[in-house]
Amino acid sequence: MTMTKSLKGLTRRELLSRGMAAGASFVVGANFVTGKGAAWATEMNAMKPDSFATLVQMARDIYPHDKVADEFYVAAVKGYDTPDAVDKTEAGIEMVNAKASEMGHGSYLDIGWEADRVKVLEAIEDSEFFQTVRGGLVTGLYNQKAVWPIFGYEGESYSQGGYINRGFDDISWIG
Fold this sequence. Notes:
With 175 residues, the chain is mostly helical.
């Protein structure tokens, strides 16, 4: 569910509380998207806010990590919000929404269950758009140093002499 009502004159706190009260996953405004109950928001440069929210949800569904906050997914897909990428990206989002509609949903964002959204993604996984987004997320999401501690990755070790003398055998879950 998205909110597109005029939000002029609202404080950030009022905006976020309205989004939470409405049960929205994302609150979409004139040129911004923010997450439900989140302390983040992002402004749009070229994309429609609904399309950007769809892209963030797709990113979360393609590489789901409960412990990774939405703001990292936002950073991972922000590169699609450029004048150079917007036409292809908007066309891809239209394809995703059309597939969701074919499967009985209003749009991708309207699908409440992750399993149902994954079915939509599986239906388009051979498309150039899906493969571009999936491939971009590998580096866009996992190259953010702020997410490394969530996965237990301490960063590159070459500059410190390699892993052999720096925790090579400190992984307790390898038996």
